Each structure stands twice: as structure tokens, then as C-alpha cells.
Amino acid sequence: MERKSLDQPDETRKFEGLGWADIVTVGGKAVARGHFQPGWRWSVNVKPIAGTELCEVSHLIYCLEGTMRVTMKDGSVHEVTKGDAVAVPPGHDAEVIGHDACVMVDFGEIGEYALRHL
């Protein structure tokens, strides 16, 4: 058995303002707890790091706090809020809506999320 706490992450990845992700690796898989402040938007705060037009990461998330709007490449729009478990495929933008921070735990393919690729 392997156990780690997101309160003592292996790594913290800062976004380009308004948030960060605490990451642990357990069982060979990355697990992240993302903290997204009001006003955070992937296309503003992570796109410069990722270097892609849209987020190309597959997420499997559980929302602990707040609300996030996800806009898919096909134009469909979905809201994720406290208590939701959601699978988000690659090809999306996302933004915090409302005045509260959004906190999510991500069990998806996030090992490379918010890593600068040169």
C-alpha cells in the first residue's frame, strides 16, 4: 500500500496567476488538487504554460468547492459544482464562475498538466 497526503504534495505547479495544483504520485499515477481563484480561466492562466489552443488533458474530477464552467471544442457548455464527479475529455477551455474559489481533485491523466513544454 502507498499513501500520500495532498496537504504535503510531492510538487506544486503554479498557474500564470489565480491558482495552483498540488500533486502527489501514488501507485505510479498522479493525483492533483487544483485551487482555482475567482477569475481563473484555462485559456488565460494555463494556456501560456501548456502551449496548446485548448486543454488537451483528460480529467476525472471531483469538485470539493465552487463552480467551474467547461466549454468543449464543439461549443457545448457544462457547469461543474460542489459534489459533482465528472469526466472531461481533451479539447476544452474552463473558467471559474462566481465569487468563490473552485477546488477539485483530479484523478485523470494529469501527470503533464500545467508543465511548461519548451
From TrEMBL:
Limits of the Cupin type-2 domain: 57-106
InterPro entries: Cupin_2 (IPR013096), RmlC-like_jellyroll (IPR014710), RmlC_Cupin_sf (IPR011051)
Entry superkingdom: Bacteria
Pfam families: Cupin_2
Signal peptide: none
Protein name in the entry: Cupin
Organism in which the protein naturally occurs: Rhizocola hellebori
